[in-house]
Amino acid sequence: MSIETLMNELNNVAIGENIDFGYFHKKIAEEHKNSVKASDKVICLRLFRSLTDLVLNNLTDDDKIAEFRNLSQRYYKLMLTEECIATQDKAWRYKGMADPTVMFNILSREVKEGRMSAHDDLYRLTLETVQNLSPPSTQNQTRGIISKISSLFRR
User: Fold this and answer.
1) pLDDT (tens digit, 0 to 9) for every residue of the chain, 155 residues total?
2) Distance between CA atoms of 75 and 22, rounded to whole angstroms?
3) 46-to-76, 87, 105, 128 alpha-carbon distances in Å
4) What is the DSSP code (8-state) at residue 16?
5) I need a labelling partner for 122 at 20 to 30 A (CA). Which of 21, 74, 75, 82 fits?
6) Cα-flanking dihedrals φ and ψ of residue 154, to 5°?
7) In whole angstroms, what is the distance from residue 55 CA to residue 21 CA?
8) Cβ contact 110:45 at 8 Å
């Protein structure tokens, strides 16, 4: 499915209509993962934000709203982490680690475009890590950020 087809399909969902979040999330995540251009990845992130907004508009229970916001933030951060791993230097991918500098660049884009708060834990953690890195970064510092990033998904 192309990004354009996905956009059209999501745009055809009527306000108030039940939305199959799992279906759309899966399709958006696939497009995000398969996209080569950063601009296409950003479109996928915007689509994901639109999807979450549509779902939130249909929820009325405060507990369900809070639960869904938490879940959608985890999915969003997972997409950003996957983008980092896919776009970083092969040496980092081979080690199965995320390059903090690449992650910071991605998260900075998200903050600049208003999809992420500058107070977000993942952004602040990545900023702190990049500020504390001494070139070249050591494996222990990198493992530290990976375990901290992983802990954000275990909440």
Assistant:
1) 688 888 888 888 766 678 889 999 999 999 999 988 889 999 999 999 999 998 998 888 999 999 999 999 999 999 999 898 888 777 676 676 788 899 999 999 999 999 999 999 999 999 999 988 856 545 555 566 666 777 777 66
2) 11
3) 10, 19, 18, 26
4) T
5) 21
6) -95, 0
7) 7
8) yes
CA angle 128, 134, 144 (to 5 degrees): 50
Which is nearest to 16 in space by CA: 50, 69, 56?
56
Kindly state the DSSP code that residue 96 receives in the 8-state scheme: T
Residue 67 token pair: 């639960």
Q: What residue spans of the chain are helical by DSSP H?
A: 3-11, 21-34, 38-58, 62-87, 90-95, 100-112, 121-132, 139-153
**Residue with token string 């884009």:** 109
In this prediction the pTM is: 0.77
Gap between the Cα atoms of 119 and 126, Å rounded: 11
Say which residue the tokens 């979040």 belong to: 21
Amino acid at 48: F
| Owner of token pair 């929820």 | 59
Angle at 45 between CA 132 and CA 127, to 5 degrees: 10
